[in-house]
Structure formats: C-alpha cells, structure tokens
Write the structure tokens for this entry.
Amino acid sequence: MPNGTTPDANLDVSFSSDANPFNSGLPIAMAYGYTDNSQGSYRGKGQTKETVAPGSTVYFEIFDTASSPTFNVVSATISAVNNNPGTGRANSPFSDAAWSTGTVVATRTPAGPNEVQLRGPNNGATSTGCNVTGRNWACGPFTVGNFNGQRFEITISVLMQDGQSNQKTFTVDPEMVVGEGK
Amino acid sequence: MRVFRLETTLQSDVVPINPNAPITMAYAFMDLDDTKPTSNFVPDAQNLRLVRKTVPKGATIWFNIYDTAASPAGTSLPEVTAVTIDCTKANTTIGDSPFAAETDNPQSLNKYWLGKNSITARPSAPLGQPTTWPEVMPCGQGESYGCNMKGRRWDVGPFTANKDGAYEFTVTVKLSNGRTFMVDPEMVVGEG
C-alpha cells in the first residue's frame, strides 16, 4: 500500500511502458485485477466484475512492469458509466465530492474540483490483483456510495511521458457493481 | 460473415509476485469486417471498449495471443505450450459454450467443443500424427489492433459462435518458461 490506510479493495492496472504500439496515436490496452483486502490478507480476484459494499473503500493503483522504466505517469483519468436504466442513477460508484461528475483526474498537483492526488512512484511495488511487481502510482481511497444494485463500467486511462516528452496512453474498462454480495 | 478476434497480450518476461499463480493479461475484441482488406483496417475508438463484445450468431471467432516481450540478443523467448478456453464461469451445464458442434460441416473446429465447456489447444503433433486437440498455431510477429501492440503471435481457431447467450470466458495461456497468464473476457452471442 502506498500509505498507511488499507482500503477494502484495490483495482490494480498493469502494463509495460516499453510496449511497442501498433498505432502511436491510439491508447494501448492494459491488464487489470481486483484485490480484496477485507478478509485479513490480500487476495487476488482476477478480472471478473467486482462487487463493492456501500461504505467500503477502494484504491486505484497503477503498475509499470518495464524492467528499466523511463516513463512517468502524468495523469490517470478514471471515469464511470452507469449501466442501470431508469432514474436514480448515480454518476459513479463513489460518494466522494471529486466523483460528482463521474470522472476524476489524478495528478501530482490537483487543482480542479474533480482532480485528486496521484501518489508515487514507488519502485518494486507488488500488485496482488495482477500478480506482478513494478513501479507503482496510486490514488484514493474513495468511499463507495449507497447505490446498491447499480452497475458501472469504469474506464481508466493512464497518460505516461518520458524525458523527451514522448507520450503513451494505456487504457482498460473494468466493471464494478455496488452491493453486499461477493 | 463477420469475423472477430479476441486478442490477448502478455509479457513473457514479467516478474510475478507468486510464480505459481496466473498473471493477468490485457485483452480486446476486434471486429474484422471481411468486406475490407485487413491491411486497410483502421481500429476506431469503439474497438478499444474492452468490457464485453456482442457478436451476431454465426460469427467466426479467433483467439489470438501476443507476447510483447523484447528478445535480447542471443536469447530466445518462451513458446506457448497450451491455451485453455473455459466457459464454465457463467455456464454450469456441461457442453454449454457458444460453439455448438456443426454436424453438417466436418471441417468445423467446433467439434472440439462437443460435450465440453472447456477446451485446451496445444501445439501440433509430430508430423504424420493426427491431433485430437485444436492447435496453437505460431504466426511469427504480428500486430494486435485491439490492444494496439506488436508482438509474437499465436492463433487458436476459428470457431463459429452459433449459440445465443452471454458467456464469460477464462482464457489461460501456459508458456514453456513455466509462467501462466489469464484473462476473463465476456462475450454475448445474439443481437449484434
């Protein structure tokens, strides 16, 4: 964990910043994995959709598995789309004010109302969800709102940049369901 | 006929925390419109939506694996030794997969799914010996349009998705260096 707070769940994303894109103008897919921290020990849960309980906390963590990474995270944009039909739809699974529009941007120097602190990098960090080690950044924890039964597609986009201002974007779309069941 | 590829990418030299546990892979579905030459294919943003894919009944499905690891000079990279495609997560009935056997088409690889909801593809048998499993076909260097990566590629398939329903796959790839990679994509067969 990047700080002293242990969240109830982690959503880890992992990629190699050495990845050679086919089209440098498009994002590169990355892997993801959930970790359940609420049972006393960290446990990877693979990539099935994660059910998170109202009031629980979730961390988002980024892992670069490149052996000698030269890229750093500039920002991580995390957005939620609610798949539930009808009224009463929440914009995101989280009750934090930063999530009011359904999108947060994690940066080193957050400024706007929807920007949050990006922590890191930490070298030699471990992702239980993805079963990899790497260089790590994180944001959160965020608190799950009382939105039982609502299902969200989360898009995580990580913008990386090296010392020569070369940029790469990595993206993935995991799912999250708010509820009591696991 | 619509053709789709479920592209999975791994990095064979990644360092796992637990070498006995699977490492996650990235994945993306690609919709290959066979009315256009593949060489002219340009992926659009929609193809990078990764959560699940709805394909029309009768669609052709390939499973592609890409290793994005670089090979340092004088070294060789591991080979794929097995690819298991498992539909048991969402479907508990044996034989319940999107790939029903096509009795009128003896060439169809759907025969490997007869009575099963999990199959394992392996490399070819020695020359002259028949295989009783779907083959993992090495294809050299390739480009994953969906994941937007380059790497060494292996193919499994094609299969015909001819049974309506929502399916959750677990694709597990084993390498000759002992590492195992896994991903859990979803696919809906029906109203595409």
User: Anything to note?
Assistant: The longest strand of chain A covers residues 132-143. The two ends of chain A are 22 Å apart (CA to CA).
